[in-house]
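Notebook B, p. 112. Complex prediction, attempt 2.
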Amino acid sequence: MSIASRNSARRILILGGDGFCGWPTALHLSDAGYDVTIVDNLSRRMIDVELEVESLTPIRPMSERLAAWAEVSGREIGFHRFDVARNYQRMVNLLLDFEPDAIVHFAEQRAAPYSMKSAAHKRYTVDNNVGATHSLLAALVESGIDAHVVHLGTMGVYGYGSAGMKIPEGYLKVHVETEAGAMATDEILYPAHPGSVYHLTKTQDQLTFAFYNRNDGIRVTDLHQGIVWGTQTEQTARDERLINRFDYDGDYGTVLNRFLMQAAIGYPLTVHGTGGQTRAFIHIQDTVRCIELAIGNPPAAGERVRILNQMTETHRVRDLADRVAALTGAPIDYLPNPRVEAAENDLHVANDTLIQLGLRPTTLDTGLFTEVTDIAARFAHRADTRRIVCRSAWRADRRTEPTTTVTTAPPAASTPV
Amino acid sequence: MSIASRNSARRILILGGDGFCGWPTALHLSDAGYDVTIVDNLSRRMIDVELEVESLTPIRPMSERLAAWAEVSGREIGFHRFDVARNYQRMVNLLLDFEPDAIVHFAEQRAAPYSMKSAAHKRYTVDNNVGATHSLLAALVESGIDAHVVHLGTMGVYGYGSAGMKIPEGYLKVHVETEAGAMATDEILYPAHPGSVYHLTKTQDQLTFAFYNRNDGIRVTDLHQGIVWGTQTEQTARDERLINRFDYDGDYGTVLNRFLMQAAIGYPLTVHGTGGQTRAFIHIQDTVRCIELAIGNPPAAGERVRILNQMTETHRVRDLADRVAALTGAPIDYLPNPRVEAAENDLHVANDTLIQLGLRPTTLDTGLFTEVTDIAARFAHRADTRRIVCRSAWRADRRTEPTTTVTTAPPAASTPV
């Protein structure tokens, strides 16, 4: 029996359902029996055009994806192309029309390097991400639809220094001195330490959620996700027309997938800085399961924003590189770090809630590396190795090479939708 | 000797220099010897058009204001009309051209009730306020201009419940338990508790400042201001063409000024809820002095965001009403509270830094009430008493009367600038 059949949430809206996490989530939930509708403005594909790069895997246009899924599964997924941050009235109309029980919100620009590329990219990321989250919540209030919002946040909101603490799930118990000299105890939103403009927007989202939750009773689960690796899920692997995107470029490629792809095509593994950065990870198959678990376990009416750490393990970047190198014989290339961050950090993270809800983690298993390297090897002919190095820099003094003479710009707001 | 002559900050850009606090600040700094240039898109005047209300005082168009100041003082103030949130390139060009030493940032929608009026007003407030602050910081990074940003924040970012604590100046010392069971001490940004979408944007601004301060070394002073009362300053009183604006309507009027105006025109004092809300206050004359003190004492290079509480005293709203009633014989009208907030709260606030820097507070003095009531009585014929009641509500269930059939909308983004 699927989880969906055991709970009452039936209609799910997926904002950003064309992306790396959004697409497999849409298929997983559709497969689990939910009635799924996607909203996406295709901004991620447009950014590929801007960056002159393509998914290593040959992802199909949305209409072909949806037709293939209907053919393979016998299930329909709805699709609306509009911009959640800007096309406010379309969102209100869709809420009133579709009456979703839950809304999975991926409709944000998700790459930290892209968010630091230029002033235009910083401003696009803020306008898009802060605007999308806020417009969604304002639309829920206006429409009166009581849907559970499941938002994809990031472990990065916590920052990567925790003074010997295990990072809790969103809320931190603190003791403060009162005027009378006594100690008072309070539980607060974990202090934000964003490391890029992208991460900044996710910390701003947290405040938006907290306000609308308190003022209007909007029910929210905020999933603070680790770095996703892997490519395919049970559903995206069913037909090549359903294949998930695979980003390997310096802006959108995530670290472990980049290593695996680099090894597969015979390119040195690119470690930025010492590689002493410890990060949290999760496999794409677990991402989609976690989202289903979050949907199946909504907060009660009046409950504060529920924050879950959606990660399964932590690793140092250089340890990952060593592991991939040992397995494949690939050399490691230590490059200057374009980010302004600590060279080394520890990271201990609580992820009890999703485990208690039933997640059985897909931990880093070199067996699973094969899936990724197989995909990478198969589509190696599509790789443009000029796009592998990260050209975005956190500050002008972190730029490793002159930028190309092409000035790129984020998707125009004027694209008709 | 003026403070300006004792320090090196000479060129000051004032964003939002046409508003209730911005205009007197521009005149005060110009009078103190600074070279002042104003940026304003006149949005506050356009909102008056939308709300079908006018400043009780007959404020003059910007060109007349500036000509009058030049005539009275012999000093020129520059003026550029554009939208700081949207006209990014104009901001970059102005920074490179004017090379300001400090930038006073008032370019935000400042009324909590207005920010809660409708979804369009919520979205306008977020887009405008978060966008203006972020665009300014991105423009400083791109231009490479090392100007000190002095931002007008609000005491409201702290919320109004402090568990017996004296609210510190921005940063809170907390003790947390480590994994080993020991206690670690940290100083964190005071946890945000915004009470409206307007306040939400100011808490989001704090995160933007912290990020750009840490990543790019932008020097910022964030002034968490109390509720401003009074109308005129030494400079705005010099010539009637320089008169400051006086808002008395339910959205933009601040509580004490509303009471004083209501008393002057024979309207019952409007207390929302029990009047047990304790708030922090500051006189407009002290506002402009505090900003000069902040400019004269910039943070050092590499220093974290400096946060000062810009208020001089706290009062319960009903005590203020009683005081004005006792003085004038005005009756008090207790109305339903359109806000979602605690009925009663205490408030203890640290304001040591501005006092140490030399502020001599203009505390609540019934003598000063006369200035306001004189102005109100003089312009009573301009009052539209239908605009006194607050029609904005924090939630649909807090609406006290049906809204009028006129649907208002915030200033169009398309106004050519």
